[in-house]
Each structure stands twice: as C-alpha cells, then as structure tokens.
Backbone:
C-alpha cells in the first residue's frame, strides 16, 4: 500500500487486519468491510504531503474542543494515534460547521477525513465511506434544573435545540410530538440558547451532553438517556478506499496494543467495554 502526497509516494507500513472490528460495546457489525492491506495496490491520496488533514467541529467535547488554539479531545488523541500508525502526522483544520464536513470530504481537496462523533447511517453512507466503528453512543435530553420537565413526553409541542445535521436533531424531529426543533451551528450555541430561555430542551449525543452538564452547565440536567444504539466512525471520501483501509488497519492496531483503551480511559474515566 502506498500513500501519494501530491506526487510523492511513501510506504505506509500498515499491518494486515485479520479480523473485522466491532463497536466498543460489542454485538454490532462493523461500519465498513476490510480487506487485507497486503492485497491493496491502490494509492492513498492525501491533500497535504505527509499529513492526515482532519475536518471537525471543534466545540464537541469530549471528542474535539479548543484549548486556546490547540485541538484536544478523545477523537483528537485517537486520530493522532492512527496517523502515527500510518506514518503520517495528524493535522486539524480550523473548526468546521458539522453539517458542512461531509460535503467537504465529498468535494475533496481540503480535508482527508471528517470526525466529530459521526454516527454511521445509511443516508450518510450514500455520500461517503465510513471506517470501522470507533465508539458506541446514545442520545441524551437536557433541560434546566428548575424547568419542571422530568421526561420527554412533557416536551411535546416545545422548542428543542440541536446541532444542525446531527442525529440528535433527527431524533427530536421524529420522536418529540409537535416539537419545534431549532438547528444551531455549534453545540455551545445550543446550550447558551437553553440557558437564556430560547429553547426548552436539548437533544444531542449522550457523551457530549454529559460532559457539558458536568463541566460547564451545572444548572442543567439530563432527564432521559435514549438508547439509540448509535455507532461513531471516521468519514472518508468514496474516492479514497485505500485511505479507509489504512485507517481500518490502524484502528485494529491501536485496539490490539492498548492505545485505544488508554485514550478512552483518559477522556471518559472508565475502560472501554
């Protein structure tokens, strides 16, 4: 397998993946099928020489967030580890609106991959490829502690905030009867809207709302955890199957050597199941 960086070919040095990788909680099929790296002759195309260029919404802790000008988070550390296995450097672009990431990857030329808790869905798979699953997740519903809301049924006909283009937005539209679901570009704007009374509740990925409620918005609470059984994976262009394969091989490696478990425990305080 070769990596092509604007006309420069270098050896990726990837290990052969003998087995498919399941989600962190098990019991689910992988997001993408894998073939042996030894049998792959296609070149990996990278937009910048020697770098894996990553598009992400950098307000999505604990997955991606900015500390000063530095991107930090679970997926940041994971992408760095995967890039190291591939023999390249991980480089994040400036924060990108979540609902523009897939179009950016599809168009090509600016980023090689997209992350920010991308749930594998059939609709998204029509536009892009996913790597193997990197984490399982559910949805969470957040309200102000003094709101009086104790369950989702009470939110019928209310204003629900969610980040645009997310499965949280879709879930609220499909499952909260008569709700006005309002899209926001960034998660911080969703929480600010709830705090200021513009919306009545938030629907979003459970690990994200857990982080915000614990660390930044202690005047809010999660009233319901929705077992949607979602799985996160990395977004890759359909035109770059060799990159998807290389990432899949790297995911297998970081799982096998314990790197994944170390990163998971660092950001979630528990070991991956």
Residues:
């Amino acid at each position: 397998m070769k990596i092509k960086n604007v006309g420069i070919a270098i050896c990726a040095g990837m290990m052969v993946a003998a087995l498919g990788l399941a989600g962190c909680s098990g019991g689910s099929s992988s997001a993408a099928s894998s073939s042996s790296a030894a049998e792959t002759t296609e070149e990996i195309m990278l937009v910048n020489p020697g770098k894996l260029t990553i598009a992400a919404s950098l307000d999505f802790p604990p997955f991606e967030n900015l500390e000063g000008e530095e991107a930090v988070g679970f997926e940041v550390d994971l992408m760095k580890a995967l890039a190291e296995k591939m023999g390249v450097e991980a480089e994040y672009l400036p924060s990108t609106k979540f609902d523009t990431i897939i179009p950016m990857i599809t168009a090509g030329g600016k980023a090689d991959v997209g992350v920010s808790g991308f749930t594998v869905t059939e609709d998204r798979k029509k536009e892009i490829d996913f790597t193997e699953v990197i984490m399982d997740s559910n949805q969470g519903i957040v309200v102000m502690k003094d709101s009086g809301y104790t369950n989702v049924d009470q939110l019928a006909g209310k204003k629900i905030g969610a980040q645009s283009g997310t499965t949280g937005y879709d879930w609220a539209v499909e499952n909260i009867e008569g709700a006005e679901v309002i899209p926001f570009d960034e998660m911080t704007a969703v929480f600010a809207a709830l705090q200021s009374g513009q919306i009545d509740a938030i629907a979003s990925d459970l690990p994200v709302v857990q982080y915000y409620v614990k660390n930044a918005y202690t005047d809010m609470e999660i009233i319901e955890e929705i077992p949607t059984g979602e799985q996160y994976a990395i977004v890759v262009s359909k035109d770059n199957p060799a990159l998807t394969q290389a990432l899949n091989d790297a995911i297998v490696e970081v799982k096998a050597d314990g790197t994944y478990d170390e990163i998971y425990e660092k950001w979630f305080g528990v070991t991956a199941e």
